Amino acid sequence: MGLLMQLSKKTIGSLPRTVKRPHYDLGTVTVGIVHLGIGAFHRAHQAVYTDALLSEDPSWGICGVSLRSPETRDALQPQDGLYTLAVQDGEGSDLSVVGSVVELLCAPEDPEAVLRRMADPGTRIVSLTITEKGYCHNPATGTLDEGHPDIVHDLANPARPRSAIGFIVEAISRRVSAGIAPFTLLSCDNLPGNGHVLKRIVTQFAEARDPALAAVVRNVASPSTMVDRIVPATTDSDRRAVASAMGLEDAWPIMTEPFRQWVIEEDFPLGRPAWEKAGALFVQDVSAFEFMKLRLLNGSHSTLAYLGYLAGAETVADAMALPGMEALVEGLMRHEVSPTLPQLPGFDLPAYRAELLQRFCNPALRHRTWQIAMDGSQKLPQRLLGSIRDRLRAGAGYDRLALGVAAWMRYARGLDEAGRPIDVRDPHAARIAALAQGIDEPDRIIDAFLTMTDVFGTDLPASAPFRAALIKALDGLLRNGSAATLRSFRR
Ligand code: CS2
């Protein structure tokens, strides 16, 4: 380390022949997409689909915006936006350099530059991966949280926003004043009906600013999408491995799996890249795909992250190797979640589930259970609670789903099974820690958590069977611990 040159337009020619690289002229790419939340996921997913199409139409380059920290900009700007994608399948690593991110901005440092770029006529799509909490909404109802500090700030200072919502509405307002049609909004976050949720939230925000603006925002195109690729956070050891394979330093390579999927609703009034040529699927209604992915993949992920972390498993693959875990996850998907899913004609659901189990077991991905455990209050509603509601309505069982929810509570209380503190990351971490402080009885802990109507709604806390199922699951976890609880699922 330190002796190698850094990846950039100047040095890209020196890469070994085995490393794939852009086939288009990097100098000709211009910005057509502003992406809010330029994290690892975007760079392993939408940026890769877009990269494949730039030789056909170089007007769809990406301006990547960080809404919080300058880290990504600082890492990628000296590299002319170039970065390495390392696809890992257990056999080895397939390396390619991605060139679609052509501009990097850090919003808190220069919100005006972000607004200028969003208001530019060349920008035709504003896409987002801002994570669940970035929507500043009530996860149980999908409506804007008008008391959220960033929203309060952005309503008071519309020209210097902090939240994605504030940026979007201000940029649309500037476009309208300049006679430029609004861009298409493209939410790529793991929320059901992500396009509808985003539209509802920005409309609510615009209403609080100005009814005439709200009338425009209400009509902005905001197709929903289902996105899927497992992308663990990059570690220093990943950086070292990539540098030694490339013969060049890359400040922020992205590690991912071979699998990728993108299903998008067709609604792009100002045009779009031909993403279907890179494997995306365009449909009229994405909801069946979304339910399937959020409830099977993400629901399993959260369940195994909490139980796995509590049982001492550092990564998803380690968690899957715990006796009983695979049987639990398989049973959760097959018996409890699959019956709740809308039909997708011609779709092989058993094969999809089997592939998920395989993906979770990918030993080459060091996907930390702690990473997935983050932001549970924002994730549980769409990952586990929706399935539970459907099972309750059908009068059917949901013990495994209830165990996932109880494991979140056990985890979010902030002490592991050896009594050591857990670094719980959640926008409501402090509130959760205070909820059941000093309480040990499972029923009282459950009752304390069920006061979180922004997570559970008002229906679930009122359901006696749901409460009883949670108490039973939490009682078992507290008495026996996670590893022994899991062992009881062993086939
Ligand atoms: C994970 C997701 O961190 C998490 O909560 O469940 O990021 C998951 O890896 C992706 O949705 C896979 O597409």
Strands side by side in the biggest sheet:
5-2-1-6-9
Main sheet properties: 5 strands, parallel
Spans of at least 5 consecutive residues with low confidence? none
Q: Beta-strand percentage?
A: 5-15%
Strand tally is: 13
Q: End-to-end distance, in Å?
A: 47 Å
**Could you say which structural class the secondary elements and strand pairing correspond to?**
alpha/beta
Ligands bound to this protein structure: D-mannonic acid
Q: Indicate the multimeric state.
A: single chain
Shape: globular
Helix amount, in percent?
40-55%
Mean pLDDT: 97
Task: Work out the radius of gyration.
Answer: 23 Å
Figure out the total of helices: 20
Domain Mannitol dehydrogenase C-terminal: 285-475
Protein name: Mannitol dehydrogenase family protein
Pfam family, one: Mannitol_dh
Domain Mannitol dehydrogenase N-terminal: 32-277
